[in-house]
Each structure stands twice: as structure tokens, then as C-alpha cells.
């Protein structure tokens, strides 16, 4: 019990230090969603038809109880992607330029989510909104905070290095590196939970949405 309390205190302290960069990353993700939704209008008619045909086939299969991948396989694939992403972000935090790349990656992921939601909404109306909510919202409640936390942590550590706070001594550097790694580990934990939701819950919800007349 004391360990859990101590862990929660550490997380609260880390969040307090990183709240600015995390909010910046969150704002960029939201901006990406908005720009992605607006970009739907730039699709040509042929691209719209091709994309819509693929989406329709997917949702019809889900409505029949079919899944593109078995849940365990989907979970493993999503988990591997998130582990690679967090390792990538962790490495980017070793420089200011790298932290900007992390923010750009966060924006692009928001753009992709906004584009998908905007496309479904534009093509299918309220049914598209239901599809988008089923496909993106469940895991998004964990993915978005996880991505924002990871990108914000990357920016925070890069600024510490650039400002010299983490380079005053070897012990100071390793102490900050340990805190940075712990923060990224917590971000990964959120993303792994999102991967489980994506693998097990999202296909069921998407199948239910696909049965909407």
C-alpha cells in the first residue's frame, strides 16, 4: 500500500513538472485531428470510392462477426508498434531537434485520426459518426493521453539537457534519465492498455455499429 502511495506521489510530481509540454503535445494532437478532418475535402472522387469500398467491406465483415486478425494477434501487433514508438520517442528526447520530431509525430497521428473520422462522417453521415466513435473512441481515451505524455516527456527531457540542468554532474544526469525513463514507461503502460481495448473491445463495437440500418 505504501509503495502504491509512493508511486502515485512520484507520478503526480512528474506530471506537475511536465504539464506544460504535455498540454502542448495534446494541443498539437487536437490540431492534427482538425486538419485531418478538413483534409477530407481534398480527396478525389476515385480515391473516395476506393476508400469507401474498403471501409464498407471491413464493416460488413465485422457485422457478421468476422475479424481482420484474431484478438491475440492484433494485441501483439499493436503492442509491438507502441513499444517501438515509445523507444523512438525516448531516443528523440536526447536532443531538442528530436523532441520537435516527436511533436510532429504526435500531430500526424492526430491528423490520421481526424482524417478517418472526417471521411466516415462525410460519406455516411450519422452512421459514419457511429462508426468513428466505435473505431476510435474506446482506445483513444487511453491512446491520446499516452501519446501526449510520451511526447511531452520527450520535450521536457530535451529542454533539461539543453538548459544544462541534467548535465551539472554525472549523478544529476542519471537521476533525470531515470525519471525520464520511468515517465516513458508509464506512457507505454497507457498505450498497452489501449492496445488491449483496440484488439478486444473495438472490433465488437465496430461490428455493432455496422448493424445500424
Automatic annotation (TrEMBL):
Entry keywords, A to Z: Membrane, Transmembrane, Transmembrane helix
Superkingdom to which the source organism belongs: Bacteria
A Pfam family annotated for this UniProt entry: SpoIIM
Transmembrane recorded as keyword: yes
Sequence intervals crossing the membrane: 21-43, 82-103, 110-129, 141-162, 183-206
InterPro entries recorded: SpoIIM (IPR014196), SpoIIM-like (IPR002798)
Keyword RNA-binding: no
Protein name: Stage II sporulation protein M
Organism: Caldinitratiruptor microaerophilus
Amino acid at each position: 500500500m505504501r509503495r502504491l502511495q509512493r508511486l502515485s506521489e512520484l507520478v503526480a510530481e512528474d506530471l506537475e513538472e511536465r504539464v506544460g509540454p504535455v498540454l502542448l503535445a495534446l494541443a498539437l494532437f487536437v490540431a492534427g485531428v482538425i486538419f485531418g478532418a478538413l483534409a477530407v475535402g481534398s480527396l478525389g472522387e476515385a480515391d473516395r470510392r476506393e476508400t469507401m469500398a474498403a471501409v464498407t467491406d471491413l464493416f460488413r465483415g465485422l457485422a457478421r462477426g468476422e475479424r481482420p486478425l484474431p484478438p491475440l494477434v492484433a494485441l501483439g501487433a499493436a503492442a509491438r508498434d507502441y513499444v517501438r514508438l515509445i523507444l523512438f520517442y525516448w531516443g528523440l528526447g536526447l536532443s531538442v531537434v528530436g523532441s520537435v520530431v516527436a511533436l510532429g509525430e504526435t500531430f500526424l497521428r492526430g491528423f490520421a485520426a481526424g482524417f478517418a473520422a472526417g471521411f466516415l462522417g462525410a460519406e455516411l453521415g450519422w452512421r459514419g459518426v457511429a462508426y468513428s466513435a466505435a473505431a476510435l473512441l474506446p482506445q483513444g481515451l487511453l491512446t491520446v493521453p499516452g501519446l501526449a505524455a510520451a511526447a511531452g516527456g520527450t520535450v521536457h527531457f530535451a529542454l533539461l539537457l539543453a538548459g544544462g540542468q541534467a548535465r551539472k554532474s554525472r549523478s544529476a544526469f542519471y537521476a533525470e534519465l531515470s525519471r525520464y525513463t520511468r515517465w516513458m514507461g508509464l506512457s507505454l503502460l497507457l498505450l498497452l492498455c489501449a492496445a488491449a481495448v483496440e484488439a478486444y473491445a473495438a472490433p465488437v463495437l465496430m461490428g455493432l455499429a455496422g448493424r445500424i440500418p
